[in-house]
Design goal:
Blueprint lengths: L1 E4 L2 E6 L2 E8 L2 H6 L7 E5 L1 H8 L13 E10 L4 H11 L3 E10 L2 H4 L3 E10 L8 H19 L2 E2 L1
Antiparallel strand pairs: 1-2, 2-3, 3-4, 5-7, 5-8, 6-7
Helix pairs in contact: 3-5
């Protein structure tokens, strides 16, 4: 979190000041014969180190993952994170998402739309997934994209 003040911002990690970034005061620049505006960055390594110590072990699966791709035409105004919310809320089996392609064609899609293509990885920690399970989740994702964003599945 960065809290702005006049010409500088404090950097906070978990409520503790971890540093600041900002403009060097003009009087100091003049005293040192520096002619151009200059920025500075200061950090407290102890605060940063303590924040990094809070690591959590995330178990990995010994079972295979399943990748599925989905491509759709959507309004450019739809925010990327809203699309990710649809994927991530669809099922706890969604292990990762990757945007691997975007494509614009004003003649085919219109000037305010584009095509997005994502690769979704599904995985369970304790068993092998079936194609039927993934098909049902993909169908649900497609329906949500259509109902929430008027997307056209390709």
């Amino acid at each position: 979190k960065i809290e702005p003040t006049q010409d500088r911002a404090r950097i906070l990690i978990n409520g503790f000041e971890a540093g600041e970034i900002g403009m060097v005061e003009p009087g100091l620049l003049t005293a040192r014969k520096i002619l151009s505006p200059t920025t500075f960055w200061r950090c407290d390594p102890k605060v940063i180190f303590q924040a990094c110590q809070k690591t959590h072990f995330v178990p990995f699966s010994q079972f295979p993952s399943i990748d599925r791709d989905i491509s759709f035409i959507i309004d450019k105004k739809v925010q990327y994170n809203r699309v990710l919310e649809v994927f991530n809320s669809a099922s706890p089996l969604v292990a990762s998402t990757e945007l691997f392609d975007t494509f614009e064609d004003a003649k085919r899609f219109g000037p305010d739309k584009w095509s997005m293509a994502f690769r979704l990885r599904f995985q369970h920690l304790e068993r092998t997934l079936t194609s039927g399970e993934i098909d049902a989740i993909m169908k649900d994702i497609g329906q949500k994209l259509i109902s929430q964003f008027s997307a056209q599945i390709r």
